[in-house]
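Below is how a single chain appears once it has passed through the pipeline. First comes the sequence as given, then the structure the pipeline wrote out for it. We keep one example in the README because the format questions we get most often are answered faster by looking than by reading.
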Amino acid sequence: MKSIITSILVALCPLLLIILFLSLDIVADFNGKVAISGYGFVVLSLLSTMFLLARFNKSKIGDIMDFKIPDIYRDLIDKKACAIVCGYRENPIYFEECLLSLCGDNYDKIIVIIDGNEVDDNYMVDIFRNIYDNGKIIHLNETLYDNYHSIIVDNKYVCINQPHRGKRYAMYSGFKVAIDNKMDIVMTVDSDTIIDSNAIDIFRKTFNDKRIGGATGYLDIYNNNTVISYLSKLRYWFAFNLERAFGSYYGGVLCLSGPISCYRCGVLNRVLDKWINQKFLGNDCTYGDDRHLTNQILNLGYDTVYNPKAIGYTETPENYSRFIKQQTRWTKSSYRETLWVMKFISKKSKLMSIDISYQIIYPLIIFGLLLYSIWSMNVYTLLTYFYGVFIISLIRSLYMFVISHRFDSLLFYNYSLIYLSTIIPIKIYALFTLKDTRWGNVGRIANNAILEWIFIGIWNIILISGVGINIYRNIISTTQIVLMGVICGIYLIGFLLLYILSKYNQTKIFCDMKYKHNIINNNIDYPEPKIAFESFDEIDNISMV
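Resulting structure:
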């Protein structure tokens, strides 16, 4: 109860201050003041609601795990559980650590799907064989989607080596094998993800409620060794402990994250064919697998929830080009699945309707207000916008600090600059290239994001030009100069601290991995992938400012 009261205070006190700040008469005209004040009020009202309900979710999940739910909803069966690992030409070190994390006795079966059966894919089979010496290896000439036949095996550890068709087809094969072998629940794991030993037991208890069709756990980042990956690590905390926790409270998590999610096999069996055959604008869908599978489960009337006690650790892009490709892919799938969710949104909680509506409208508000503030030819309007963005981002940082007691969380406000300079133009670019369903990357080492870089460059030229012209055409007072200096200094210091932390505050998992394998980052000798399943998890960048 004390933590909930603390969360309420953290949310409400800054809310009153920011609304007061944004209501001050420091902008050029009435329309500008109303727009910016409205922006602050709407964003912080929603944030306050999310802060509160996200905390309530923790007690909700605890009640489910302890069977403190009505008898009619109790699922009392002893659930057989398995894990499915899908990968394509994965970094062998990540893949090895992933499989080692799944060696516990609490799994009834481990199913590994290697999405490739060429010579360059054999090293993944060898890694499986070295770790699970009593495992069974099955080579397929066709995927189970192309030529389905039941695969029933007594071995606990199973590796299926099939032709390369992409992640969705690899997952489909794994799901089919799990269902054929009479599993009750199945946990999906990415080939670069390390899972806590008790995660599957926590998921078993999460499904004590018959209304739950799918659940996701907390996904942390282990390779926080660059500025962008360190910021991503902070971003993931919010994506799960705020946004997914909020959705979980009303039973509508919109995306069960691929690296650590769990599903009822009986529910999966009802949606698999629709999921695998998904098309958009006449093309087969090649990404957004996790979110569409979540939507299919929600469409059946089941709840999707988030349990923060089930924990996994995954890899994230360490360079900006891979980050841009990742965000482009996620944004496209977000557009597509937001349209799809309209089919059943009326049947779900009103909170889901508010959540979805906000996700649609919010980027448009940010886009419009940003351009208005920069090209308004009023320096105070410009300063009001950027200070408003900073304060709202700082409120999120303070919330994370109060809940997690991590001092580096206070630097999360720096992500707002990434959002304004990169995420917004990516959202525009993704809208124009929505029909392009290619995965969008060429592996972990070589990356090509030329078109995206050009688009982002044009966007930032427009912004910088607007700021420059705004300042040039107005008489700048000492107060304005000081305010501009302060906000620039805050971000410069923030990014400098992030750089230092990325070099000297790396995660224990990543340090142990480097020591164990005598590597730095990914400078190792392994087959260069044509396409890598770099990060299956989808983290929407909707409410980052």
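DSSP finds 16 helices and eleven strands in the chain.

See the next section for the split statistics.
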